[in-house]
Amino acid sequence: MALFAYTVGGGGAILIGLWESVTSISESTRGENPLYHSSQLVENASRSKPRLTLFSSATTYLLISFLSVLVIVNSLISLFDAVNYKDSMGLALQLQVIPIASLFLLFSGLGILSNTTDSFHFPKTILNLIYAFAFGEEFFVFYTKINDPSGSGVESRYYDLMLVPIAVCLFSTLLEMRSTYYAKLGRGIGFISQGMWILQMGFSFFTSMISDGCWLSRRSRGNLSIKCKGHSEYHRGSAIATLEFNCHLAVVVSFGVGFYSVLRKVHGMEREALKYTPIGADKTVVHDDNHHQFSLESDDDENGIGVEMTLKGNVWATANN
Fold it and tell me: Where are the membrane-spanning stretches (predicted)?
């Protein structure tokens, strides 16, 4: 059951990240494609772009709201389980998770209302601010789990590495307040990394992929710890977690660069990028078989003196008449 919860949560985060990445790249390339700037297609593009943007935003809000509801339901189940086992720490952990999911649900609910009803329009900046608060609270919760004296197992290393994609999502959401496509792309990549790492934690905690010499210790459904026999097993488990994170990061970067290149090729390149000019092409070279001659002649009516300076190759000649 716990592995299923981690799988659903990680898969949902990956789906949200993929959708945000695809829509951000499509919007940016559609706005930069020279075909959309032609006089014949400007009117069609201006009409279709709001519809496409509203559809992509509404889909994102629906995915976030659905995942938030699932997280709240899972946390409530874990909360009642902690009450049955009289686990005060497990109860406190779930009371931290529910407000985070509620913030994401509030953000998605307000976004859906803003997109579906004309009478209710919530400012985009305020929505992004709520979004940023949700990521900030999530970051704070995982940070407190690292410094929790009762949870000093290998799982603390996994929580420590989880801070990286959460920080990417938080920073990208703050940048999106200035309406940049690439900030949305960065948040999508952060969501994908978050989802992949949640999946990795599920398999590393609840399957045979757990590090040798370590085992799962659970006080309740939502309060777990990975205990090890000694310091060597603990450090090996932490090193394996770091190696797994580096592999996930390499996969995300490789897939992201390749996918971005394919979409760029399909939708077209930026207008300025098409104006490629070789280095030095702006320099004009003049070929002349005759020698270049420069003459300075001063007309002096009284003395009748003329000065002529002639350049022939590298030799200067001066003559006074």
Answer: 52-73, 93-113, 125-146, 158-177, 189-210, 239-263
